[in-house]
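Field reference: sequence -> structure
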Amino acid sequence: MSDRILIFYGSYRSDRMGIRLAHYLVESFAARGASPELIDARAIGLPMLDRMYKEYPSGTAPEALETLAGKIRNADAFVFVSGEYNWSVQPGLKNLTDHFLEEWFWRPAAIASYSAGRMAGVRSGLAWHGILSEMGMIVTSSTLAVGGIGTAFDAEGTPTGEGGAAAAKAFPRFADDLAWWTEAARAQRARRAPPF
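Structure field:
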């Protein structure tokens, strides 16, 4: 069975560099036989959180919200591509995730962080670890951290330079960790229904 992986990206900036990392991840997971899909918060364009998906009466949620809820429920695993803004998380990605709660439960998540500087977005990744855990996901211990994002990938997401080479070298362990937890979670859900 091919792992259905949603790869979430949240920058709304006009000159987005992290989208290159997101494209790299889509291609790299597909090359391993998974079925990845990029979920771009800017393209989906959810409004600032007013009402969570679960707070809409059945059948009345906006179409974009309903569609995304279905994709999240049907996914096996998640990857969050996390840029760092002022030592914290991107508001666009945080807003998208906050529209949902139960839809995330009982699946693994991995964090790929990035920034223009040498810290590679790790402070954002650290913040996301707690956020995703609180939202019912198991967060893998292996992370992917890319500094110098503007020179680490070309426009199509192909690794370039030292930063790209380091990301490509780290990716197999990152992907193996997520795959192990994805298989474990799938097997457990088949064996026993989640407790809530």
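Note: The radius of gyration is 16 Å.
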